[in-house]
Design goal:
Layout (H helix, E strand, L loop, with lengths): L1 H21 L4 E4 L28 H20 L3 E6 L1 E3 L8 H12 L3 E2 L3 E6 H14 L5 E4 L2 E4 H12 L6 E2 L2 H16 L10 H7 L2 E2 L4 H7 L6 H14 L5
Parallel strand pairs: 1-2, 2-6, 3-5, 4-8, 5-9
Antiparallel strand pairs: 5-7
Helix pairs in contact: 1-2, 3-5, 3-9, 5-9, 6-7
Length: about 250
């Protein structure tokens, strides 16, 4: 957590200070939808969804929240010419690590995502998010947030969509919350004991899965000219790329 804070918070502050000193005319700062609140009724949240640092579940989310606050404070107090974009969940080609979402897509492509949690997320094609940054540079208002998102999908629907592409049977079993919390606790304990390196579930991931992280890109569409392609296309491109890289057979 300390390294993450130094990188995301202190690093952002230093970079923005240097940009001010250099007289940079326009900055697009990449934040995340993870710093925004979620609507408890599952309806899509927007850029004004309230949240506090106490709402941030993981060290990563906390660091992103604080880093965005640094930028917004500098916009207000020092005239930093920054526009903020809040990408949702990028899916598509080039996910070589892969990211946590890319891992979910890859696993669902392999086995159909047999087990799923009652949660949801906003899926956007990575290329649309990239173009959204350019649109924010050209058309964004300083000190304003813009969600760069796509389609809101339940995890079950995302797995089913992915499984259909590769001809797998698809999700069949919903995992109860009590089982998820038990798995998260066990995963963390085994990792601390050095018995496993990357637990399938952690307490942070289980807490995040208890919310439907749905978002609206209406502001970006109206003010930036942002558009997004269907989530199906993003997943198809991701699966195709995984196959081309021999990560999926």
């Amino acid at each position: 957590p300390e390294v993450m804070t130094r990188t995301n918070v202190d690093g952002t502050r230093l970079l923005m200070q240097k940009a001010l000193e250099a007289g940079v005319e326009r900055i697009v700062y990449t934040s995340s939808v993870c710093v925004l609140g979620c609507n408890s009724d599952g309806s899509p949240a927007d850029e004004d969804a309230a949240s506090t640092v106490a709402d941030m579940i993981s060290p990563y989310k906390k660091s992103k929240f604080l880093a965005e606050k640094v930028v917004m404070d500098m916009v207000r107090d020092e005239g930093l010419p920054a526009v903020v974009v809040n990408p949702s969940t990028p899916v598509g080609p080039g996910d070589s690590r892969p990211t946590p979402t890319g891992t979910m897509v890859l696993n669902a492509a392999r086995d159909g995502g047999m087990f799923y949690a009652d949660t949801g997320l906003n899926v956007a094609h990575v290329d649309d998010i990239a173009l959204g940054h350019f649109l924010a540079l050209e058309n964004g208002k300083v000190g304003r947030r813009y969600i760069l998102g796509g389609d809101n999908l339940s995890l079950k629907d995302l797995f089913a969509m992915t499984a259909n592409i590769t001809g797998k049977p698809g999700p069949r079993f919903k995992v109860p919350q009590v089982v998820m919390f038990s798995a998260g606790f066990a995963g963390e304990m085994l990792a601390k004991l050095g018995l496993i390196k990357n637990p399938v579930a952690t307490m942070d991931s289980v807490r995040m899965a208890s919310k439907k992280m749905y978002y609206s890109s209406d502001r970006a569409e109206k003010e930036l000219g942002y558009t997004h392609r269907p989530a199906l296309e993003a997943v198809q491109d991701a699966v195709g790329w995984f196959k081309a890289q021999h990560m999926l057979r």
